[in-house]
Design goal:
This protein is an all-alpha fold. It has a domain of 71 residues: Orthogonal Bundle (Helix Hairpins), CATH 1.10.287. It has nine helices and no strands. It is globular, with a radius of gyration of 16 Å. The chain starts with a helix and ends with a helix.
């Protein structure tokens, strides 16, 4: 996304500053939060698409402000694990685990027609790492709704709910067969997540 399009997407004039960008993002994120829509509402899919645009615009403008350049687009389907979404998910998980969150979001946003449980889980994980807990919550809930009984998804949602209640349980992003108890680790990633939860809420 180019700079002018990013400003227009957030409803801002060209040259708006960081505080204006963050305020505009917050307002739009609240408006299009998935919790505002019923699971079977036709507007929910539109809201998800709109959130992808808003997130891309925010990332573009913040990258320009911080580095002077827009984030590089992620590789296309032919370059990343084949054309199928499921073929790309393992690489996206690796990006998230490596802290390459903007790259992971670019990959997820580039998967046409996405919206399955794993896609929602990875979106939630990426936003959790960014400290955007409201967005993460919506995606985790959708992942659990689409694939009830998946212990990884349920543990991530439960841990995030507990963290918002003031009881941080650790990293919501764990292995597929891990139970919530296995996530109470003291690794660097968990320390980072605790810091994000405490310091990086927008």
């Amino acid at each position: 996304m180019d700079k002018l399009t990013a400003y227009r997407t957030l409803g801002l004039p060209d040259g708006a500053g960081e505080d204006e960008i963050k305020n505009a993002y917050r307002a739009l994120a609240q408006k299009y939060n998935l919790d505002n829509y019923e699971a079977d509402s036709p507007l929910r899919e539109e809201a998800m698409a709109k959130m992808d645009e808003i997130n891309a615009a925010f990332d573009t403008l913040m990258s320009i402000l911080r580095t002077g350049a827009a984030p590089a687009p992620g590789p296309g389907p032919a370059q990343q694990g084949g054309g199928s979404a499921t073929g790309r998910y393992p690489a996206i998980r690796q990006m998230i685990n490596a802290g390459q969150i903007d790259e992971a979001l670019a990959e997820l946003s580039g998967i046409t027609g996405a919206g399955d449980a794993e896609w929602n889980f990875l979106m939630g994980s990426a936003y959790y790492y960014k400290g955007w807990l409201d967005q993460a919550m919506g995606y985790f809930r959708e992942a659990v709704r689409l694939e009830p009984g998946n212990r990884e998804y349920e543990a991530a949602l439960r841990n995030l709910q507990q963290s918002q209640d003031g009881n941080m349980q650790g990293n919501p992003y764990g292995g597929r067969n891990q139970d919530a108890q296995a996530m109470n680790c003291a690794c660097n990633t968990c320390t980072l997540l605790c810091c994000l939860d405490a310091c990086c809420r927008m």
